[in-house]
Amino acid sequence: MIAQNETLFDPVHDTQQLYRELLDAFAEPGKVKKAARLTAGEAELKPGSRMIAALALTLLDSEVRFAVDNDDAQQTVAFIRMHTFARAVLPAEADYLFADGRGALPDWTAHVMLGTLLEPEQGATLFLQVDELTEDEGTGHAANMRMLTLSGPGVPGERKMLAAGLAAEWLEQRRLWNAEYPLGADVVLYTETGKLAALPRTTKVI
């Protein structure tokens, strides 16, 4: 029998594990990783925002600026501010952006922080929710599934990944963000169930 507290999100153990998964995701672009537990914010947030909560607890602190643009934004922002003391700002000023990658592009996507030549690391990191992520090419026929072919640092030759529910407009916008390397924005795709895959600005996606 599993004790009740074993199902709760551990702000130390679970954030450390998720941080390692994120590091591995950036080291291996397109490789699908998995968060172990998504019960952060379970009482306050919709299921799609609990992955945001876990990521926020892992990455954000009082020195970090963030923005959320989804259908649970008000509750999610309040949760993040309470638990991390991070600063909620306009998307154009955010270090970390959490948004829904399944719909049309919001106006703010034209104004994401891309860093400077002296400080390219100041570019934003965007977390975009999609419906599903997999490396199994056999599922490519599934409805709404888009195959991404990745190349660049961390990818031996080419790597294929499939994302369901990722709007094509986001991929085109990502290309524009990263057109003048080293300027750009890093993107992480994630699902409600805790899957994630990184698309660093150095990765070419077709």
State the helicity in percent bands.
Answer: 10-25%
Rounded to the nearest angstrom, the distance between the terminal CA atoms is: 47 Å
Number of strands: 11
Radius of gyration: 16 Å
Instruction: Tell me the series of helices and strands, N- to C-terminal.
Output: HEHEHEEEEEEHEEE
The best one-word shape is: globular
| Widest sheet: strand ordering | 1-10-9-5-4-2-3
Provide mean pLDDT, rounded.
93
Tally of individual helices: 4
Model description:
- This protein has 206 residues and is an alpha/beta fold.
- The protein is built from four helices and eleven strands, in the order αβαβαββββββαβββ.
- A seven-stranded mixed sheet has the order 1-10-9-5-4-2-3. Strands 6-8-7-11 form a four-stranded antiparallel sheet, with no helix packed on it.
- A hairpin with a 4-residue loop joins strand 9 and strand 10.
- The radius of gyration is 16 Å and the shape is globular.
- The N terminus is likely disordered.
Name its key features:
globular, 7-stranded mixed β-sheet, 206 residues, 4 helices, disordered N terminus, alpha/beta, 4-stranded antiparallel β-sheet
Gist of the model:
This protein is of the alpha/beta class. It is built from four helices and eleven strands, in the order αβαβαββββββαβββ.
Topology, pairings included?
Blueprint: H1 13-27, E1 33-34, H2 47-59, E2 65-69, H3 73-84, E3 87-88, E4 96-100, E5 125-129, E6 132-134, E7 145-151, E8 159-164, H4 168-177, E9 186-190, E10 195-199, E11 204-205
Parallel strand pairs: 2-3, 2-4, 4-5, 5-9
Antiparallel strand pairs: 1-10, 6-8, 7-8, 7-11, 9-10
Helix pairs in contact: 1-2, 2-3
